[in-house]
Design brief:
This protein is an alpha/beta fold and 383 residues long. The chain has 2 domains: 130 residues, Aspartate Aminotransferase, domain 1; 242 residues, Type I PLP-dependent aspartate aminotransferase-like (Major domain) (Aspartate Aminotransferase, domain 2, 3-Layer(aba) Sandwich). The chain is built from 13 helices and 12 strands. A 7-stranded mixed β-sheet has the order 2-8-7-6-5-3-4, with helices on both faces. Strands 9-10-12 form a 3-stranded antiparallel β-sheet. Helix 1 packs antiparallel against helix 9 and helix 2 runs parallel beside helix 9. The chain is globular and about 65 Å long. The protein starts with a strand and ends with a helix. The structure holds 4'-deoxy-4'-aminopyridoxal-5'-phosphate. The site of 4'-deoxy-4'-aminopyridoxal-5'-phosphate (PMP) has 15 residues, from helix 3.
Length: 383
């Protein structure tokens, strides 16, 4: 059977998470915001338990956790939600990077239509954005700096720790899209300073369709984020709409499992990485790994196989491996990776690059067997 190697697009749900959710679906009917009966109270208890699990993983207080439908929504709220404050304070300057997920890039583009000045900083070939290139752009009227923790295509860790340290002292909001690092770089996330953080449960083996926004309080105040859709007071008024009780329970459970198991998971995914690299070394194919591997997260490899068209390869190897050559959110039609392009990777190399990503439940022997066959085909179609 084909091996799934596209965890950065979506990781499979952990069966313990699924069981938790099935129990909630069976036993906790009702709306967590209904106050007139015990069904509502019980549903609320489930949601608040999940909030504690999320808060515990991230090392924040429960009052700082807001459930959303996932990182796309969280990123939108983080950025668009500051609009009113930006108008009032006359801070209309936003800084972000060229390798952010589209949920950030498209949202800042929208802010630019609304009259904001947006500066987009490119990384270098290492896949990292230089923190000083960002800090040098910060001005008195800078409202927000938005930088992802780990890039979804390359796995390269960005200098959010260094940025957080500096930005904390300045009057600028710092948003981190931690979708690819949540539940993995647990201590790192607990250790750096930020005001706003986004994550999605399905990237840490929770359910799709739920995630969160963490709004850190500073001097007892939460960032002045306003709702971007209207119709209810749920989630502190920031995210109106009925809370999906079972999904939040699944999100909480996934966070609890990640917290208990991330250390061994990180060792496991690193061991698989070594085996994948060994297979590449033995394949007889000329290859290189995109991005500075000193800064790469354990579960991702973005590999350029010289002379091998990634599009042709993926079509010919579906029976062995499910992987990708870019973000799933932009993959309906092939267009060269904007992340690799921003790094300065040549078009020919981009066309030859694939993204491999795996997770805690990936079985090494299953990967090796299929990846070996995958590489045999790759070798055969080299131009
Ligand atoms: N940010 C990053 C870095 C991501 O990798 C993704 C998912 N590919 C998102 C945001 C969006 O997450 P979701 O699709 O769950 O809303």
């Amino acid at each position: 059977m084909s091996v799934y190697l596209d965890y950065n697009a979506s990781a499979p749900i952990d069966l313990r998470v699924l069981e938790t959710m099935v129990e909630v679906y069976k036993n906790n009917i009702g709306n967590a915001d209904s106050r007139t009966h015990s069904f509502g109270e019980n549903a609320r208890a489930v949601v608040e338990h999940a909030r504690r699990q999320v808060a515990h993983l991230f090392g924040v207080s429960t009052s700082e956790v807001y459930f959303t439908s996932g990182a796309t929504e969280s990123n939108n709220i983080a950025i668009q939600g500051l609009r009113e404050y930006g108008e009032k304070s006359k801070k209309r300057h936003i800084i972000t990077t060229a390798i952010e997920h589209k949920a950030v890039l498209e949202t800042v583009k929208y802010m630019a239509y609304q009259g904001y000045e947006v500066e987009i900083i490119a990384p270098d070939l290492s896949g990292r954005v230089n923190e000083n290139a960002i800090l040098n752009k910060v001005r008195d009227d800078t409202l927000l700096v938005s930088v992802m923790h780990v890039n979804n295509e390359t796995g390269i860790i960005q200098p959010v720790k260094e940025l957080g340290e500096e930005l904390y002292r300045r009057d600028v909001f710092f948003h981190v899209d931690a979708t690819q690092s949540s539940g993995k770089l647990v201590e790192e996330i607990r250790g750096f300073k930020y005001n706003i953080l986004s994550f999605s449960a399905h990237k840490l083996m929770g359910p799709q369709g739920v995630g969160g926004l963490i709004l850190r309080t500073k001097s007892y105040k939460r960032p002045p984020i306003k709702a971007i859709i209207f119709g209810g007071e749920q989630e502190g008024g920031i995210r109106p709409g009925t809370i999906p009780v079972a999904l939040t329970a699944g999100c909480g459970k996934a966070c609890e499992i990640a917290e208990n198991e991330y250390k061994e998971n990180n060792i496991h995914v690193r061991a698989i990485r070594e085996q994948i690299i060994a297979e590449l070394n033995n394949s007889g194919i000329d290859y290189h790994i995109n991005g500075d591997q000193e800064y790469c997260i354990g579960n991702t490899l973005n590999v350029c196989l010289a002379g091998v068209s990634s599009e042709a390869l993926m079509i010919l190897t579906k029976q062995y491996c499910g992987l990708s050559n870019g973000s799933a959110c932009t993959s309906k039609i092939y267009s060269p990776s904007y992340v690799l392009a921003a790094m300065g990777v040549s078009m020919a190399q981009i066309d030859n690059s694939i993204r491999i990503s795996w997770g805690p439940d990936t079985q090494a022997d299953h990967v090796i067997e299929n990846f070996r066959n995958f590489l045999k085909i790759a070798k055969g179609i080299r131009s």
